[in-house]
C-alpha cells in the first residue's frame, strides 16, 4: 500500500470507490447546494492526500464533511485530518499512536455512521504485536509548564468516580466520560509533564477508554467499542501497564465471542494470558478463555482453563487486584463456569454452578446478575423447561429495566423465537407480551 492510500482522506475515498476527480466533483456539488462556488479539482485533492496542502478549515473542510456524512462538530473539535473516517486496521503500537488512537475513538462518539469495525484477523495481529513489543520510553519534558499536580489528582479522582458510575448510570455518565477523556487527551497532547505524570495520564486515558468501550458495547455499537478498546490498549501499553493491557485484549476477545468469532477470541487470549502479572487478572483471562473454548466444543481445554482460573483466583497476592478486574470473584467463576458447562452439554452441573454464582453476587452487580440469569434462562429452554426459562428471563428483564442495560434486554429478546414455541403457557405469554411492549425502545 503506497503513502497516498495511507492518508485518511485517500482511505475514505477508496472505501467508496471514488477517484480524486469524483471526490472533487462531489465537493463542488456540496458547495452548490449551499449557494457557494468551489474550485476544488482532483489535483487539489491529491495535494491534501500527500500532505502538501490542507483544506481550508472554514470553506473546504465543512464541504468534505458533508460529502462523507460526518457531523461538523467532529471537524471543529478534532481538526484535520483526525475527523476523517477511520481505517479498518488498528494503528501499530507505539507512543506516537497513543493520542491518534484516542482522537479516532472520540470521533466515533460524534459520528456513529462513518466507522468500519476492525477485522478479526487484524485484532489477532495486534494482540501478537502487544505480546512481543516492549513499551517505548515516555518523552521527558523540562519542568516549566508541566501538568499541575493538583489538577492531575483531580483528573484521576473524577475519572475514577465516572468509571464507577458508568454501568448503572449509563445515560447520566456517557457524555461526561467522553468529555473527561477529551480533556485528558488534550493534556497528553498539549501539555508538558514528567514521565511519572505522563504514565498517570496515559493510564487514566486507558481506563476511561475502556469504560466507554463497554458502554458502546452494551449499546451494540460494536465498531466504536472496538475503537475505544484499541485506544485503551495503546495508552495502557504506553504507560507500561501490562495487566491493564491484557485485560483490554480480553475485552476485545469477549466482544469477538459475542459476535460469534470464538476462534479469534481464543487466539487473542492465548497471547494475553502469559503476560499477566496479578493472579486476579490471570484468573479472569483464563475464565474468558474457557468461554471461548466451550463455544468451540473443546471440552478438555475448557476444563483446563477453568481449573487455571480457579487456582489463580485462590493464589495469594500482596498487591490489591487492579481496578479493572477488582470485581472478579468466586461468584463470577461459578456462574461463568456454569455457562461453559451448559455449552458443553453438562446442564445439571451447569445449573448448580449458575445458581451458586447468582446467589453470591452482591446487589451492586445488577447488570452481571441480569446477564447470568439470561444465560440460565437460555439453558432452561435447551432443557425443554419453558416455564422456568420464562420466569428466570423475567427476573433478568426486571433488573435490566431498573438499571437501563440495553445489552441485557437484547439478550432476553434473542430468546423470543424459541419462547414463541411455548406461547400458550402463562409465564411465557406474559414475558412475550412485555417484550413486545418494549420492542420499540431497543
Structure description:
With 442 residues, the chain is mostly helical. The chain folds into 3 domains: 1-85, 434 Repressor (Amino-terminal Domain); 92-275, no CATH class; 362-442, no CATH class. Helices cover 69% and strands 0% of the residues. It has 23 helices and no strands. The model is unreliable at 1-5 and 140-144 (pLDDT under 50).
Keywords:
442 residues; mainly alpha; 434 Repressor (Amino-terminal Domain); 3 domains; 69% helix; disordered N terminus
Q: What share of the residues lie within helices?
A: 55-70%
The counted number of beta strands is 0
Distance between the termini: 41 Å
| Rg measurement, Å | 24 Å
Shape descriptor: globular
Task: Please state the oligomeric state of the protein chains shown.
Answer: single chain
Average pLDDT level: 86
Return the string of H and E elements: HHHHHHHHHHHHHHHHHHHHHHH
Structural class comes to mainly alpha
Q: Indicate the low-confidence ranges by residue numbers.
A: 1-5, 140-144
Helical stretch tally: 23
Domains counted in the coordinates: how many? 3
Q: What's the story with the biggest beta sheet?
A: none
Strand content: under 5%
Question: TL;DR?
Answer:
By secondary structure, the protein is mainly α. The protein contains 23 helices and no strands.
How do the helices and strands line up, and which of them pair or pack?
Elements: H1 3-6, H2 8-15, H3 20-33, H4 42-49, H5 60-68, H6 72-78, H7 98-110, H8 120-132, H9 149-165, H10 170-190, H11 195-218, H12 222-238, H13 242-258, H14 262-272, H15 279-295, H16 299-314, H17 330-343, H18 347-360, H19 366-382, H20 386-403, H21 406-413, H22 416-420, H23 426-438
Amino acid at each position: 500500500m503506497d503513502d497516498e492510500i495511507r492518508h485518511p482522506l485517500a482511505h475514505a475515498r477508496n472505501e467508496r470507490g471514488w477517484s480524486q476527480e469524483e471526490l472533487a466533483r462531489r465537493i463542488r456539488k456540496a458547495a452548490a447546494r449551499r449557494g457557494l462556488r468551489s474550485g476544488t479539482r482532483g489535483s487539489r485533492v491529491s495535494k491534501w492526500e500527500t500532505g502538501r496542502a490542507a483544506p481550508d478549515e472554514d470553506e473546504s473542510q465543512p464541504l468534505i464533511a458533508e460529502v462523507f456524512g460526518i457531523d461538523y462538530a467532529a471537524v471543529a473539535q478534532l481538526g484535520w485530518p483526525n475527523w476523517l473516517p477511520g481505517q479498518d486496521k488498528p494503528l501499530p503500537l507505539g507512543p506516537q499512536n497513543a493520542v491518534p488512537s484516542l482522537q479516532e475513538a472520540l470521533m466515533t462518539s460524534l459520528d456513529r455512521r462513518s466507522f468500519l469495525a476492525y477485522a478479526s484477523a487484524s485484532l489477532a495481529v495486534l494482540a501478537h504485536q502487544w505480546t512481543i513489543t516492549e513499551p517505548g520510553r515516555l518523552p521527558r519534558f523540562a519542568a516549566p509548564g508541566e501538568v499541575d499536580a493538583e489538577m492531575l489528582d483531580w483528573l484521576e479522582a473524577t475519572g475514577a468516580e465516572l468509571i464507577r458510575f458508568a454501568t448503572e448510570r449509563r445515560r447520566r455518565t456517557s457524555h461526561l466520560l467522553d468529555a473527561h477523556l477529551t480533556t485528558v487527551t488534550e493534556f497528553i497532547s498539549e501539555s508538558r509533564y514528567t514521565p511519572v505524570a505522563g504514565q498517570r495520564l496515559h493510564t487514566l486515558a486507558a481506563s476511561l477508554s475502556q469504560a466507554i468501550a463497554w458502554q458502546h458495547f452494551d449499546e451494540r455499537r460494536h465498531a466504536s467499542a472496538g475503537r475505544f478498546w484499541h485506544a485503551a490498549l495503546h495508552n495502557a501499553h504506553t504507560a507500561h501497564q501490562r495487566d491493564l493491557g491484557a485485560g483490554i485484549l480480553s475485552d476485545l476477545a469477549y466482544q469477538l465471542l459475542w459476535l460469534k468469532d470464538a476462534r479469534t477470541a481464543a487466539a487473542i487470549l492465548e497471547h494475553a494470558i502469559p503476560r499477566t502479572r496479578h493472579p486476579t487478572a490471570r484468573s479472569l483471562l483464563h475464565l474468558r478463555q474457557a468461554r471461548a473454548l466451550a463455544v468451540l466444543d473443546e471440552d478438555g481445554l475448557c476444563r483446563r482453563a477453568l481449573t487455571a482460573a480457579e487456582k489463580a483466583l485462590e493464589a495469594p497476592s500482596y498487591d490489591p487486584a487492579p481496578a479493572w478486574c477488582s470485581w472478579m470473584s468466586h461468584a463470577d467463576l461459578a456462574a461463568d463456569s456454569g455457562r461453559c458447562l451448559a455449552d458443553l452439554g453438562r446442564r445439571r452441573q451447569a445449573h448448580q454452578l449458575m445458581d451458586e454464582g447468582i446467589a453470591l453476587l452482591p446487589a451492586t452487580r445488577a447488570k452481571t446478575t441480569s446477564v447470568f440469569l439470561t444465560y440460565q434462562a437460555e439453558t432452561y429452554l435447551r432443557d425443554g423447561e419453558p416455564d422456568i426459562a420464562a420466569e428466570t428471563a423475567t427476573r433478568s428483564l426486571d433488573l435490566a429495566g431498573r438499571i437501563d442495560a440495553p445489552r441485557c434486554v437484547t439478550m432476553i429478546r434473542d430468546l423470543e423465537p424459541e419462547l414463541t414455541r411455548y406461547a400458550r403457557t402463562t409465564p411465557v405469554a406474559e414475558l412475550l407480551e412485555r417484550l413486545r411492549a418494549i420492542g420499540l425502545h431497543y
